[in-house]
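Table S2 (text version). Query chain:
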Amino acid sequence: MTLEPDHDCPLCPRLVAYRLANRAKWPDWHNGPVPCWGPRESKLLVMGLAPGVKGANRTGRPFTGDHAGKLLYATLLKYGLATGEYREDPKDGMELRGVRIINAVRCVPPENLPTPAETATCNRFFVAERAAMPNLRAVLALGLVAHNALLKSYGIPAARYKFAHGALHELPGGVLLADSYHVSRYNTQTGRLTTPMFEAVVEAVLARIA
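Corresponding structure-token output:
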């Protein structure tokens, strides 16, 4: 099974149309499916929603160039899951250690929200990516869409494991599903997600997979 969609992936017509419109406006941007980042040998997989139009859609690296990356990468650096310095640029030299990052939907959606059909269509790439990680022990789902996309990749009904910030779910086969509110600008600026709240989830996951 193909791990990464083609740069001109045709599977979701609405996302294709949005991609082409973005390419016309910003021809020097990435403007395509954003690949995963980090070593496949990692025990931990962080799963986001989708690329931001002026973030990963521009830079080509997950969570890079928009507000959501600030808390995520600061936390990964703090806990030794990354080295270097995050400067919102894929050329900043930062490297991930023991963690890989993926999005439930690889292409940027209008209004930052993919449809359920788009999430389902893109799930094939997540299934392949997860299968290619031989040491995977835990997935940190950032938000409900990521949570449900992970369950779908296992063929598990969403109702079986309900999303809740800080929840830890042991999935069949031993992989841990950890839930966190998304590290979005809205959540962090409204206080729905604070730095201590996010760090507590990461600490709990690392304690389980150490």
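Notes on Table S2: Residues 116-131 form the longest helix (16 residues). The chain is about 35% helix and 15% strand.
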